[in-house]
Amino acid sequence: xxxxxxxxxxxxSNYRQKDGTxxxxxxxxxxxxxxxxxxxxxxVKPSRCANALSRVAADFPKHSDKIELISRLVMYEDGxxxxxxxxxxxxxxxxxxxxxxxxSAKKAKEFEGMSRTERARADQAEAHNRAMQAEFRSLGSAxxxxxxxxxxxxxxxxxxxxxxxVSKSMPAVLGILERDGSLGALLPSExxxxxxxxxxxxxxxxxxxxxxxxxxxxxxxxxxxxxGARQSEDRxxxxxxxxxxxxxxxxxxxxxxxxxxxxxEIGERALQSxxxxxxxxxxxxxxxxxxxDGEVQVDSNEKVAFFQRERMTDGAACVLAAVxxxxxxxxxxxxxxxxxxxxxxxxxxxxxxxxEGLSDGEQFDSRxxxxxxxxxxxxxxxxxxxxxxATGRVALATDGVAEHILRNGGIEPFLSRIRExxxxxxxxxxxxxxxxxxxxxDDLSFLLIEPN
Length: 452
Prior knowledge:
It is a single chain. The protein is of the alpha+beta class. The chain is 48% helix and 18% strand. The protein contains 15 helices and 12 strands. Strands 1-2-12-11-7-8 form a 6-stranded antiparallel sheet. Strands 3, 4, 5, 6, 9 and 10 form a 6-stranded antiparallel sheet that branches. The chain starts with a helix and ends with a strand. The relative contact order is 0.09.
């Protein structure tokens, strides 16, 4: 049955938007194309009206084309729900295919991302492998340097760099070298992992030297403490001989290039020499000769290496204080440059502080004198002073400890604390107390020598 006007109005209202446009216009566009086709889809059945129009067309051949077109339109209008259902199915099929295409594209991107991630991991693994190979080569070279006879005398900087390199990866090797005396006598010990050390030792009666007892406290500044006290750029040391002893404290100048290597070399050679000032000059000259590109090891990172080479020309620098004690003459000869301080006891418990300009604890930033390996003549600036009637009790302190001592009651109260904590070998508890009192965050070194 053909649609009545009321039915057609209802049909139109069901398939139009409020603005008058048809719903599902995309589907209708595809349906509209069917009208131009010669064959009617099988799913569209002719209505009575369409059949009647076909008969009329047959009765009026002259107008048959127009009447047939009207008949076709009526047929499509009557059968539109079936056509729309077909178009909807096709639209759903299209949307499903579109989703599958989008999902495929998304998965392709995810796969590409996973591929990039895997490539990045592979690149990281390769870079790590190269770094490990470089590290093993560096470690092997360092061990070979330490095992080679005369390497320290030939190039003390490379020797010192090798000590530092091995201490990070294979400290047990340093323990072997220390037992055979290859690492020298300076403190802190190169093989010790301790971050802070407070220790008391005494020379053996049968050693042939003047009997002494040494108490020392050493630690590195906080940023280096995790690597142990051996990361400090300070070094202390002492050596007893039949006529007395020599004690020394050295402080590497921060910001200079490889100051730890310099203080190691000056300290070791000074303990073994007769003339301290001449020994210092020789050490400065030797280290300065090795301070050259191609001799000193630089970082594998070229940018870091560039700045290291720039700093190399400024050399390594340090300050020091040393005491030669003559037990027979009861004389203490002090050698000093910079802000490392010597405390020398006289009778009746009086202590001399050298240099005298630092005795008030207020002038530690006003002494620019230092020793630099690029200018060996700096050794001539070491001040030497002999104090007579000395008891043999001597203390040496690098600037952080010395300043704290002089601003907090002097040497005797500090010695009482040293004795109290050293009985339990608790350097960490002493350090904690000093930090609470505001001691400078610096490499801290203190050495007390007493006749035994």
